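Summary of Year 1 activities. Much of the first year was spent building the evaluation harness for sequence design. The harness presents a backbone, in tokenized form, and records the residue chosen at every position. We chose the following record to illustrate the format because it has been used consistently in internal testing since the harness was completed.
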């Protein structure tokens, strides 16, 4: 019977690397960070002083932590997206200023932009840039309505009537 202790070197190295990643100041995608947190929790839960018959288990936990650490993906930058979306949402409310067609187009672009995955990695930054371009293009494509002179013409007509009546009274 073999009562020697298991070797924790690989697990300890994986934990050291994982702890360094926790303090690197980077923001990782939720999906990869979640997998990492689970693997880290499991690694920290391995009790010390296990015997060598548990070596496969210890190595398996270390392997999962190494894979999760190496699998972390830095989250993409959504700053320009948030700015463009906010501007579009502000402009789309100005239905008295812009033509119905261009407002309708902007509404569709905003709807599409709203479907953008909010957990993309830096490798997928182009998807965000694409939405920013579409939003900005739709905002820039807004056409102002022709001025509506109906109220003005009614008032002008009334004024002309008053002036005419006034002039008739003086004769």
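For this record, the design step produced the sequence shown next.
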């Amino acid at each position: 019977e073999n009562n020697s202790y298991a070797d924790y070197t690989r697990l300890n190295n994986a934990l050291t690397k994982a702890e360094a990643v926790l303090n690197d100041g980077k923001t990782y995608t939720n999906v990869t960070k979640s997998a990492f947190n689970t693997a880290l929790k499991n690694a920290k839960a391995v009790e010390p002083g296990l015997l060598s018959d548990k070596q496969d288990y210890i190595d398996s936990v270390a392997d999962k932590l190494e894979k999760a650490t190496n699998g972390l993906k830095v989250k993409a930058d959504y700053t320009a997206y948030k700015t463009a979306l906010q501007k579009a949402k502000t402009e789309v409310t100005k239905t008295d200023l812009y033509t119905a067609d261009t407002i309708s187009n902007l509404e569709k672009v905003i709807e599409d932009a709203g479907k953008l995955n909010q957990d993309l990695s830096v490798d997928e930054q182009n998807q965000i840039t694409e939405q920013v371009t579409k939003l900005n293009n739709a905002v820039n494509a807004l056409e102002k309505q022709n001025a509506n002179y109906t109220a003005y013409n009614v008032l002008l007509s009334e004024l002309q009537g008053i002036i005419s009546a006034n002039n008739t009274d003086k004769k």
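DSSP finds seven helices and no strands in the chain. Quantitative recovery figures across the full test set are reported in Table 2.
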